[in-house]
């Protein structure tokens, strides 16, 4: 039984395999963690037993089996290639602090736990697996066209589900382990994507002598067929607002009251919040990386280079200072973010190539110059062909993007915006003059591929032929890519420094 002042949400958990139902209490915090939304707006879901082979077979390619919404699913998982995420990934929390440089305190966070990123292209599955207690395993990620799998809080597993012994019979010797998870049917979001490449009149990237300077190494040839774009990911407070106490608040409590027990409780709560956020974030980017698996010549494997977690709204001033209302931020925040990271010296500039902010807020563009005019909500925004560009004239990092996400529905948007940064226009549109190349005018945006503003059906997970050609053109121009082979230690940013920023 859960007690306390926190409001509780009652859910009916369905186990279709045994035609039985159980009721479970989840706190607001648990609901937010699992569904990324409030109790009354949670999407359709089922709680099901997930059978898997991780306990006995090679962890490189486990099988996962479950039934949901009348479907029988088996995922054949393979470890994601490349340098996706791991103990090497720097993680920082940031919060407002008047005594710190620029009024912001950055704190290095040491993440515990081991996450394994898996993919199954045939089932469009991108899954993060981690070990729980008592030899259990947790799976978080996406599969199919619009489904997510989320692990349950261990309190639920320990106190509720494990009490029903009949639900733990072994159905197949190939799947000796059973762990219960939530299968979520994600809501279909049909918002038009508008990107900065449609608003070049408001953007000076790049023109005149500046363009010539940025492009002077275009004729150099690529000497490898694998690139690893290194992405600095910013998580704003709206995505992390379930955290009730910042690190500074913890120490204030300890200093004032010397309450060691309370400090430990709050600190463990904070640790748990960060852990769950990191699991969600890695599952999110694993889903984005899966969209790039089909690229050849060159291949593209994403790398989460750095993670920054905002612990209050003002911790990301490049977003909060451009807030229109509680749910929207102005389009100008994109350039503000570029200026901020150009000047921020506490984050190693050699550690990342692209900055992407993931937020629950939608990006908003006023239809007219008048700020009182209608403000259209966008799913994401980025600058076309900006990869590897650090603009010394504007004093800005140009390779920046903003992504609206709520419950994994921003994965396709992130893949879309990252493609813009890597030089790919919308289907049906030409390439910008400063990029050149084949463009995408011969591909119809109504076909619903990833670079369309209206993605639908199986094409929503694929690149059009035009997009593939644009990737190949842009990524084979050495100033814009990391020419890395499997045995090389050179990063995208190191290559850019060697060739681009001298």
TrEMBL record:
Catalytic residues as annotated in Swiss-Prot or TrEMBL: 417
Single biological process term from Gene Ontology: membrane protein ectodomain proteolysis
The keyword Membrane is assigned to this record: no
SUPFAM superfamilies: Metalloproteases ('zincins'), catalytic domain
Signal peptide feature range: 1-20
Residues the entry annotates as binding Zn(2+): 416, 420, 426
One Pfam match: Reprolysin_3
Domain spans labelled Peptidase M12B: 266-487
Domain of life: Eukaryota
Keyword flag rRNA processing: no
UniProt cross-references to PROSITE patterns, sorted A to Z: ADAM_MEPRO
Record's keyword terms, sorted: Metal-binding, Signal, Zinc
InterPro entries tied to this protein: MetalloPept_cat_dom_sf, Peptidase_M12B
An example Gene Ontology molecular-function term: metal ion binding
Protein's name according to its UniProt entry: Venom metalloproteinase 2-like isoform X3
Origin species: Fopius arisanus
Gene (name only): LOC105267768
């Amino acid at each position: 039984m859960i007690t306390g002042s926190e409001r509780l949400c009652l859910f009916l958990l369905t186990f279709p395999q045994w035609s039985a139902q159980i009721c479970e209490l989840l706190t607001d915090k648990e609901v937010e963690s699992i569904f990324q939304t409030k109790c009354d707006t949670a999407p359709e879901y089922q709680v099901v037993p997930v059978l898997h082979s991780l306990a006995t077979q090679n962890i490189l390619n486990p099988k996962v089996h479950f039934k949901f919404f009348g479907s029988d699913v088996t995922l054949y998982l393979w470890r994601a290639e490349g340098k996706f995420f791991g103990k090497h990934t720097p993680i920082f929390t940031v919060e407002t602090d008047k005594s710190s440089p620029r009024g912001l305190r950055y704190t290095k966070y040491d993440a515990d736990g081991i996450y394994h990123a898996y993919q199954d292209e045939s089932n469009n599955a991108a899954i993060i697996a981690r070990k729980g207690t008592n030899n259990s395993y947790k799976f978080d990620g996406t599969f199919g066209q619009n489904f997510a799998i989320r692990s349950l809080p261990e309190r639920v597993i320990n106190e509720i589900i494990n009490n029903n012994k009949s639900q733990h019979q072994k159905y197949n010797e190939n799947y000796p382990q059973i762990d219960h998870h939530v299968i979520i049917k994600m809501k279909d979001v049909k918002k038009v994507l508008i990107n900065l490449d449609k608003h070049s009149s408001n953007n000076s990237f790049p023109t005149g002598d500046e363009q010539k300077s940025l492009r002077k190494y275009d004729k150099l040839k690529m000497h490898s067929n694998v690139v690893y774009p290194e992405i600095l990911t910013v998580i704003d407070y709206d995505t992390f607002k379930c955290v009730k106490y910042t690190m500074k608040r913890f120490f204030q409590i300890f200093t004032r009251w010397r309450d060691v027990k309370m400090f430990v409780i709050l600190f463990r709560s904070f640790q748990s919040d960060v852990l769950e956020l990191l699991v969600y974030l890695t599952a999110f980017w694993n889903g984005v990386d899966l969209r790039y698996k089909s690229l050849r010549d060159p291949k593209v494997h994403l790398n989460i280079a750095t993670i920054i977690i905002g612990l209050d709204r003002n911790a990301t001033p490049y977003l909060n200072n451009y807030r229109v209302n509680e749910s929207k931020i102005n389009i100008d925040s994109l350039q503000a973010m570029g200026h901020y990271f150009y000047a921020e010296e506490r984050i190693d500039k050699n550690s990342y190539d692209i900055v992407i902010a993931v937020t629950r807020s939608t990006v908003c563009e006023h239809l007219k110059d008048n700020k009182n005019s209608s403000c259209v909500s966008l799913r994401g925004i980025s600058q076309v062909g900006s990869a590897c560009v650090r603009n010394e004239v504007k004093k800005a990092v140009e390779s920046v993007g903003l992504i609206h996400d709520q419950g994994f529905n921003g994965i396709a948007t992130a893949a879309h915006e990252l493609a813009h940064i890597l030089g790919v226009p919308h289907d049906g549109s030409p390439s910008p003059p400063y990029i050149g190349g084949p463009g995408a005018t011969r591909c119809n945006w109504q076909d619903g591929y990833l670079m369309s503003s209206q993605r639908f059906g199986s094409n929503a997970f694929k690149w059009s032929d035009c997009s593939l050609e644009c990737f190949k053109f842009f990524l084979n121009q050495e100033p814009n890519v990391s020419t890395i082979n499997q045995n090389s230690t050179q990063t995208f940013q190191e290559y850019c420094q060697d060739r681009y920023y001298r």
